[in-house]
Amino acid sequence: MGMNKNTIFGWASFVLFLIGSAVILLGVLKYIDYAIGFSVVGIGFFAISWAFNALKGRV
């Protein structure tokens, strides 16, 4: 299975999106007292995921 740089950026973007979603859901469902902090971190993961997705085909 040959993975080029676009495939790697795509998988990294997907994994970061999943981690961001998991962090936000943890904050909302389990640690309600710290939901704002968890949400900020999750949005940060979304931003990095978006940047990796934007880099596909450009690097």
> Low-confidence spans: pLDDT under 50, at least 5 residues?
none
- Tell me the number of helical segments per DSSP (H or I, 4 or more residues long): 2
- Tell me, rounded to a whole number, the average pLDDT: 91
Helix-strand topology string? HH
Helix content: over 70%
Distance between the termini: 21 Å
Number of strands: 0
Q: Tell me the structural class.
A: mainly alpha
**Over the alpha carbons, how many angstroms does the gyration radius reach?**
14 Å
Shape: elongated
Assess the beta-strand content as a share of residues.
under 5%
Largest sheet: none
Quick recap:
The chain has 59 residues and is an all-alpha fold. The protein has helices at residues 5-29, 35-55.
Notes on the protein architecture:
With 59 residues, this protein is mostly helical. Helices cover 78% and strands 0% of the residues. It is built from two helices and no strands. The chain has helices spanning 5-29, 35-55. The longest helix has 25 residues, at 5-29.
Output the keywords.
59 residues, mainly alpha, elongated, transmembrane helix, CAL67264-like
Present the secondary structure layout.
Layout: H1 5-29, H2 35-55
Helix pairs in contact: 1-2
